[in-house]
């Protein structure tokens, strides 16, 4: 069965996010003054062949832990849907 994994990777809360800070500092210059706590991360999608949604989630989690995310500085969230 085919599944789609959607993975969000963001810096852990409480850690400095230089990209987010730069964007937050630039937003008032374009007239957006009400934004705060800007964080920049990665969004990854992948198609997975698996026997169940649970198996697809485990595959995506392994990819995050071993390749996609720096677990010292980043956290991740995985959403699995059937294709």
Describe what you observe in this structure:
By secondary structure, the protein is of the alpha+beta class. The protein has one domain (2-82): 2-Layer Sandwich (Mth169, Chain: A). It contains two helices and three strands. It has helices at residues 18-26, 53-68; strands at residues 2-11, 42-49, 74-82. It has a three-stranded antiparallel sheet with strand order 2-1-3, with helices on one face. The N and C termini lie close together (8 Å).
CATH architecture: 2-Layer Sandwich
> What is the percentage of strand-forming residues?
25-35%
- Which fold does the CATH topology refer to? Mth169, Chain: A
Number of E strands:
3
Work out the count of structural domains: 1
Order of the strands making up the biggest sheet:
2-1-3
- Determine the oligomeric state from the structure: single chain
CATH superfamily descriptor: Phosphoribosylformylglycinamidine synthase subunit PurS
- Kindly name the structural category: alpha+beta
Our count of helices gives 2
| Low-pLDDT regions | none
Shape: elongated
Question: Notable features of this structure?
Answer:
2 helices; 3 strands; alpha+beta; Mth169, Chain: A; 83 residues; three-stranded antiparallel β-sheet
Entry summary:
Helix content is 30%, strand content 33%. It is built from 2 helices and 3 strands; from the N terminus they run E-H-E-H-E.
Q: How are the SSEs ordered, and which strands pair?
A:
Elements: E1 2-11, H1 18-26, E2 42-49, H2 53-68, E3 74-82
Antiparallel strand pairs: 1-2, 1-3
